């Protein structure tokens, strides 16, 4: 990786491809010359080409990119700004970055790694409790004045004692497992291979995991192998009393099949923080009282956002100083 220290004592150029809060914007502008995609009003590739052409003797060598797939860092992206040598993403997942192409071109990549893990694990458990105990649905029932006219709301189901299957036992999946053990749940998991450090029951097949579980939690990365890893067969295996929670990526679950099994009563409910075509959520899901929906926000708390700003700035400063990135991401 070529050192990216700016010439002539000028602040180095950073391409900003993420909407920012006041603190991140201030931290970036105090250290770097920021070219903001969202302020430009231009199409992505036009913005990149214009930024590359306008930078003069100090072309943009680093980009801060939003996670979640809104912007794809692929060959076309890299072609538009050939001076780029570092991509820092604010996402825990990196399915929006072509890591192989970046490595081929010598472009370093840094991710958020475990900044969000605790918050996502908490959110997963919150979604599960909400679905099982019908908290959001009961809240709506009370607010509509139906308690007085119709009596008590439908009973929910207890969390303690449930058999929970987790797809993906990485940092987030492991924290989910630890939390649910405290509720008295029995944990099983699926991953590419058994984890030496895990005492939970391992299932090499996701359908078998679903069949053995009351709850299925999706916590894996998105890649070619895990796209629609939860398909109709897996959902059918989960059964009519089963609940699915997805805090990974929308495309890990076949959304059309999920809607079908929910409509047909073949599973009991779902807690979803992610969707296949965000921010569009299928109308069918919006109308279901046994489905709890959040806006891809499992990662976001006041605390995690502050930690993320610190990490992003530290990675950029390390790059421009010629030091190793704090949270490098390499192709597998």
TrEMBL record:
<feature type="domain" description="D-isomer specific 2-hydroxyacid dehydrogenase catalytic">
    <location>
        <begin position="64"/>
        <end position="329"/>
    </location>
</feature>
<dbReference type="InterPro" id="IPR006140">
    <property type="entry name" value="D-isomer_DH_NAD-bd"/>
</dbReference>
<protein>
    <recommendedName>
        <fullName>D-isomer specific 2-hydroxyacid dehydrogenase NAD-binding domain-containing protein</fullName>
    </recommendedName>
</protein>
<dbReference type="InterPro" id="IPR036291">
    <property type="entry name" value="NAD(P)-bd_dom_sf"/>
</dbReference>
<dbReference type="GO" id="GO:0030267">
    <property type="term" value="F:glyoxylate reductase (NADPH) activity"/>
</dbReference>
<keyword id="KW-0521">NADP</keyword>
<dbReference type="GO" id="GO:0005829">
    <property type="term" value="C:cytosol"/>
</dbReference>
<dbReference type="GO" id="GO:0051287">
    <property type="term" value="F:NAD binding"/>
</dbReference>
<dbReference type="Pfam" id="PF00389">
    <property type="entry name" value="2-Hacid_dh"/>
</dbReference>
<keyword id="KW-0560">Oxidoreductase</keyword>
<feature type="domain" description="D-isomer specific 2-hydroxyacid dehydrogenase NAD-binding">
    <location>
        <begin position="125"/>
        <end position="297"/>
    </location>
</feature>
<comment type="similarity">
    <text>Belongs to the D-isomer specific 2-hydroxyacid dehydrogenase family.</text>
</comment>
<dbReference type="Pfam" id="PF02826">
    <property type="entry name" value="2-Hacid_dh_C"/>
</dbReference>
<keyword id="KW-0520">NAD</keyword>
<dbReference type="InterPro" id="IPR050223">
    <property type="entry name" value="D-isomer_2-hydroxyacid_DH"/>
</dbReference>
<dbReference type="GO" id="GO:0016618">
    <property type="term" value="F:hydroxypyruvate reductase [NAD(P)H] activity"/>
</dbReference>
<dbReference type="InterPro" id="IPR006139">
    <property type="entry name" value="D-isomer_2_OHA_DH_cat_dom"/>
</dbReference>
